[in-house]
């Protein structure tokens, strides 16, 4: 990991002086906090507070001032001038050092250069995934940054979150949109898509094939992760057996942004093929408004009449729009078959 602790000596040799280096301030001139912060940045040194309250530093190798008498400068009242008393003081200063290093053209630290306690994977193992920020979680998925431009995985993750705002927008983004972010290629875009798909499938496992549908919420939880952010209208049919257990999930139609063409013949054919005793219709509104249109009501009535002729019960028609939904049964727009 290329780092080591700098222990503060209790005594210093009297009369010893620190040689002034080019463009760097000698010890006696380093009087302000900002000068000392700049010194830490050049030395890539991070402050910490031990359990006993002792302040110490971890300094990365290959620092600009690697030949500086670092110990003497720190011992010369630097800790007091920096105002370091608690771990919180140290944490804030570590963030400042890391941020300033990130801005420097000649050095952009990778995650391996960071203090171990602040690396995403180590933080996840120590504090749990639920306590990590979206950017840190995404950085773990990305695994690596841009080696050519010396951009860390977390920097890439932050750029993605700044661009798309949240995981939901990332999920609805196309591959070309993801790849438009600097440092994101097809491989990393695929990693992101795969991770988000795992999340959606996890939600669907609660209402998987073979489980009994007991409420509208069961249906909504099954379809919502997939339908709520689609940019086109999709009409689906959930096929159920006599005990309302899921047999299959069929896509009947994929329409434009405003309409979807659904023919009763296609619904009946799929239901008979799988010997379904009942069906639930589900489709989305890309506008985000789940309120049924006149066309939705008309299509539903035609489908109910067709299914009734062949003895298939229509339990509901659910429209998903954004974070909301409308149930035809709950709204009294159709009778349960």
Provide an overview of this structure:
- There is one protein chain.
- By secondary structure, the chain is of the alpha+beta class.
- The chain has 3 domains: 3-105, no CATH class; 121-203, DNA polymerase, domain 1 (Orthogonal Bundle), CATH 1.10.150.20; 210-327, Cytidine Deaminase, domain 2 (3-Layer(aba) Sandwich).
- The chain has helices at residues 33-43, 70-82, 87-103, 120-127, 134-142, 153-164, 167-172, 175-179, 186-204, 216-227, 264-273, 294-309; strands at residues 3-6, 45-49, 55-60, 234-240, 246-254, 278-284, 313-321, 324-327.
In the CATH hierarchy, what is the class of the largest domain? Alpha Beta
Q: Please state the overall shape, judged from the principal axes of the Cα atoms.
A: elongated
Look at the structure and name the CATH superfamily of the largest domain: Cytidine Deaminase, domain 2
Count of individual beta strands: 8
State the main characteristics:
337 residues, disordered N terminus, DNA polymerase, domain 1, Cytidine Deaminase, domain 2, 12 helices, 3-stranded antiparallel beta sheet, 5-stranded mixed beta sheet, elongated, 3 domains
